[in-house]
Each structure stands twice: as structure tokens, then as C-alpha cells.
Amino acid sequence: MKIKSYLLCFVCFLFTLGCSSTEKPKVELTISAAASLKDALEEIEKQYEQQNEVNLLLNLAASGTLGKQIEQGAPVDVFLSADEETFTNLVNKHLIHEDEAINFLKNELVLIAPKGSKLTSIEDVKTVDKIALGIPETVPAGRYAKEALINLEIWKQIENSVIFAKDVRQVLSYVETGNVSAGVVYKTDAYISDKIKRISTIDSSLHTPIVYPIGVMQTSKHKNEAIDFYHFLQDENAMSIFEKFGFTVID
């Protein structure tokens, strides 16, 4: 009887081992996205993972930084940029599928300051000791802000007061903590913080239009899953989440 019991246990063990070895691991998709999309994407990530056998790995940074990572061979499946220029460069280099690439969101720039600030308009930045902007070479929001300040003929007066940040969320943090007297971020970044004062929206005619493209990478090892997520981001539910966080959906 003991031998039969041992044999039965051994057979059960082999059966369990066989079953476990056939379980498919979840697909992992790396999503490189502009830092300004952080909050909306984290909410979308939860919903998508609940509905699909896929793990999403969010790689959030300035669009220019992400573009350089992709050019250097970083493994990315889907790219969401806050900068058409960076995105188009990757399309032209055949790193993004032209058939799976689209402009889908818009944003605006706003001037913010710590709570209690006496600033009332963009012209008032000429009086501040420190103003935070994203690095124009890698942070689209910083480049758009510099364009606007140049067109307003303010840039030369404040250039020495500018503190550069690695992305818009760092600009927001500098203002929230009072380390600077003002900063320029996207409307959506100001939208999520109750620690700042929103001074004014910057006229969109003063800078390049702020458009967010999305695309599937040519180098994706999980193209079908990447395309599925690409379309998921464009459905009505995902778009309502982006709108909730202050983005404007492109029809």
C-alpha cells in the first residue's frame, strides 16, 4: 500500500509539474511616454492590465530624452510623445510604424507660482529671481516656453534667472516646494496640483502647437499586443481619462 501511495504522489507531482510548465508568462510591453502623461497613463494601465494578460512597464521622461533612448536601441513597444518633431524624426528613421502612428491629444502651457504669489501675468516674470523651465533641447514644454518668451520679448531679460529642469514634473516640484518663484508647465500638470497658483495660460499663437503623437515601434517584439494597446488608448474610455486630466482630444 505504501508503494502505491508513493507512486500516486509521484504521478501527481509529474502532472502538476507538467501543468505549470505549460503556463504562458504574461507579455510585457514597455511604454515610453512623456512625463506629462503620468497620471492618466497610470489609471489606464490599471484598467488595461485587468482586462488583458499583459504587464505594462511605463518609462516616463522628457520626450527628447525618450527619443534619444529609442535611437540608441532601447527596447520600446509604444511611444507617446509630447513633441511632434521628436516623433517625426523616429518615423523618418523607420523606427515607428507609419501605419500605427497618429496625433491624438493636445495641451496648453501655463505660468504657475507658489501659493500666495503676487504674480498676475506672464509679464510679471521679469520681476522674479528664479523661474523654472524644462531644458529646451530635450523637454518640449521648455522649448515651447522659450519660444513664447522670445516672441513676447521677455527672454533676454529673464535668461539669467532661469533654472532648467529635466522634465515638466521637476518644474512643478520646484514651484510646489518654493525653490523658484515661477515656472512654466503644461495645463495638465498644473491641473493635478493643489500646491501651486495658476497665474495665466500662455497664448498658443506664441509657440509651436502642442500635439501628442502615439506610435508602435518597428522593433517591438510583441507587435500584436502593442497594436492592441495602441488602439486601446484611442477608445472612448481611455480618451475620457485623458480628458479628465485636462488633455484635449484630437477628433
TrEMBL record:
Q: Which interval of the chain is the signal sequence?
A: none
User: Which intervals of the chain form a coiled coil?
Assistant: 27-61
**Which superkingdom?**
Bacteria
Q: Which InterPro entries match?
A: ModA, ModA/WtpA, YvgL-like_PBP2
Q: Which residues cross the membrane?
A: none
- Gene Ontology biological process terms from the UniProt entry: molybdate ion transport
Question: What protein name is recorded for this chain?
Answer: Molybdate ABC transporter substrate-binding protein
**What SUPFAM superfamilies is this protein classified in?**
Periplasmic binding protein-like II
The UniProt similarity line reads:
Belongs to the bacterial solute-binding protein ModA family.
- Answer yes or no on keyword Metal-binding: yes
What the entry lists under PANTHER family is as follows:
MOLYBDATE-BINDING PERIPLASMIC PROTEIN (PTHR30632), SULFATE-BINDING PROTEIN (PTHR30632:SF0)
> In which residues is molybdate bound?
36, 63, 141, 168, 186
Any one Gene Ontology MF annotation carried by this entry is:
metal ion binding
Keywords, A to Z?
Answer: Coiled coil, Metal-binding, Molybdenum, Signal
Q: Is Metal-binding one of the keywords?
A: yes
